[in-house]
Amino acid sequence: MIEVEVKAKIDSFEEIEERLAEIGAEKSKNEFQEDIYFNSPVVDFAQTDEALRIRTTKEDDKTNIFITYKGPKIDSKSKTRKEIEMGIDDSEKCADIFEEIGFKKVRTVRKNRQYYKYENFEISLDDIEGLDPYMEIEIALDDGEDYSEAQDKIFGLFEKLGITDGFERTSYLELLENLYK
Fold first, then answer.
1. 3-state SS string over the chain?
2. Annotation marks residue 37 as catalytic
């Protein structure tokens, strides 16, 4: 799958929630996410622009755990990249396996995320520990699909919501790492 994603720093969740309601976006869920990021023993993911994480999500009393690999960004306009994700049962055992084969824990990123659906967009309002508020808009494509049209649609939706600047191509992990250097 190819994930076409653009995020922007926002001033206020309340203001964006009002704008989302005005265009007919529907809130689909609230979720807490904890992402444990790892670096490879072979290549430096910060240099290759890849990511490997274990994500634990909690929604009400339901918990899900996933391993996610994100490939390098494939353009200079957005965070378009290949993503491979797989559900697992035990994050601690998975982390132990990663560390036993040489992967190193980099940082844990925690956020509360509100999801919205609008047409074929997934929109999230992200309250990340240690960062200002952000909004992400993404579209998932099959491998081989043209992503440039999806990017244009995402930027068009941002504009419809009154957001024309504050765009960020770096991950929350990178933003936090830059803060604590």
1. CEEEEEEEECCCHHHHHHHHHHHCCEEEEEEEEEEEEEECCCCCHHHHCCEEEEEEEEECCEEEEEEEEECCCCCCCCCCEEEEEEEECCHHHHHHHHHHCCCEEEEEEEEEEEEEEECCEEEEEEEECCCCCEEEEEEEECCCCCCHHHHHHHHHHHHHCCCCCCEECCCHHHHHHHHCC
2. yes
